[in-house]
Amino acid sequence: MSLVMKGQTALALGLFNLFRVFKYRVGVKTGLNPVQKLSAQLPMGCFFSQSAPTGTMNVPVNSTLTAFGYLKYPVAGQLPNWFYSPLTQHIFQNTEKAWYQIPDFDGNVGDIKGIWEASRFDWLIDLVLHERQVRDGQALVQLDLWLNDWCEKNPAYFGPNWKCGQEASIRVMHIITALIGLEQEQHPHDNVCAFIEAHLKRIEPTIDYAIAQDNNHGTSEAAALYIGGAVLNLWKPKSQYQKWQALGEKWLLNRATKLIMQDGGFSQYSINYHRVMLDSYCLAEIVRQKFELKPFSGQLYRQLQKATDWLYVLTQADGDVPNLGANDGARLIPVSQTDYRDFRPTVQLASTLFHQHSYYPEPDSYDESLTFFQIQKLKQDNFELPSRNQFFNESGLMSSQNNNFFIAFKLPKFKFRPSQCDALHLDVWFKGRNLLRDGGTYSYNSTVEDLNYFSGVASHNTVEFDQHQQMPRLSRFLFGAWLTPKELTYSANEFGCGYQDHWGCTHHRKISLTDNAIKIADNISGFQQQAVLRWRLQPDHWTLENNVLSNGKVEIILEAEHPITLRWSEGEESRYYYQKSKVPVLEVIATQATTIFTVIKDLT
């Protein structure tokens, strides 16, 4: 890989960010970073219940854990194994090591996110919801029993569950969410405060590293410092707690200003990470209101209004969204009994907090997040909801809705680093169902084949040239030679964009919508051997006859200026983290420069 390309990519990432990463790594390696000098004794005893739990108590309120919003697995015995991965069924062994001595990737365990999942404490929210429903105290006893076991098995700053500052932040957010859910936020138990304090001590010394990532790590860790500092300062005012709260507030504003673009899109070009970011800010605002702290700046609220609208535009009637961008299975505020892929609870919460208008007026399960935090549903007269027809110029996305069709069109615009080769990907929804779909992420630590497939061009509805990716891969999470848009045009029902890649291959896609059809023209050239256009279809009974594909409800007609070959293939998609399923894929193969025409017609 050329030094010039690496240099250009480094400049695009930002020299100051690279310096932050370098400083962090040198500091940890040499022992100069103060995080290595930390020590704390995690508390034992009461956290949320009235009496200290004992190991002999039998409180089987919850004997099943759920990982990544879908994967249910039993607790072996009364207590979870905090080092067991439900993804790989392996158990992490080096639990006595200091967190900074543990490698990022362990071949024996596989994806470390499987180890981290139980220590994110989603189960804590489940038990709080159970207690709110039953009010017999049993769930609180189990909650304290599990927290005591976690503190015993995960001594401060040792083992894999202390390795990531964001994981520590998610625990803080869930502990404070539990306090609010149980109406204990004004008078938390001393042990809860000691637990939060130990975590903020871990987060603060490495927040520079989180900030350097220009992603959800910075927003999550800033939110944890702000809300954790606020809870501690209310409990027992100290300059250290005030410092944490102020540091969190500083970075919350900084990250919103830098990472939320002017059109509302987020730096990671990912709908799920957009939700993670927005949930972090929602929780910060909820704590601010509960404790009657001074409001955040007007600039912060304006950015969050735009981010709320961006997510609303892409959220379908049933709450599902296009599977765009990286997705690690996170849902930060799991207080509603809705599916992981239902994004309406976040839209409802964020619109109520930041627009003072609840975007979904009818009562439904998306209101459970408001109910949990005791937030009133709000309505403003003459409030105009965002249009579904949008040109998100800065974050690189176009959306359009016309009768039964909704589309999202991904543009090759990268102010921040791209995580997937999804330039000119087209997501099509028909009557609320994802007709042409994105492959998703699957896993961050799987085989090279899986990594290249799910983050690569083959898992998107776009064109692959000469069996190479749209951008050269520099490392597991980094591409070089970032694409830029060519011939970008936009009007309400007709738009287009193209690019030329590192190898000189060019692709321009033009899309027009009529009342009952979508017309797509893909102009391709510059390739050596062959180009493959893929249409990744929703699983259904499809028939192909004379270049016409149909499932009885929709017809897809294919033509080209020069000869093309149509080939049925089987692809994969990941709707939930570490989950795969098969999807039918129609491949359109061209061996010379041409324009391929696709018409998608509504037959209903």
Automatic annotation (TrEMBL):
One example GO MF annotation: lyase activity
Pfam families: Hepar_II_III_C, Hepar_II_III_N
Heparinase II/III-like C-terminal domain location: 390-550
Assigned keywords, A-Z: Lyase, Periplasm, Signal
Start and end residues of each Heparin-sulfate lyase N-terminal domain: 99-325
GO cellular component: periplasmic space
SUPFAM superfamilies recorded: Chondroitin AC/alginate lyase (SSF48230)
Name of the protein described by the UniProt record: Uncharacterized protein
Species for this entry: Acinetobacter venetianus (strain ATCC 31012 / DSM 23050 / BCRC 14357 / CCUG 45561 / CIP 110063 / KCTC 2702 / LMG 19082 / RAG-1)
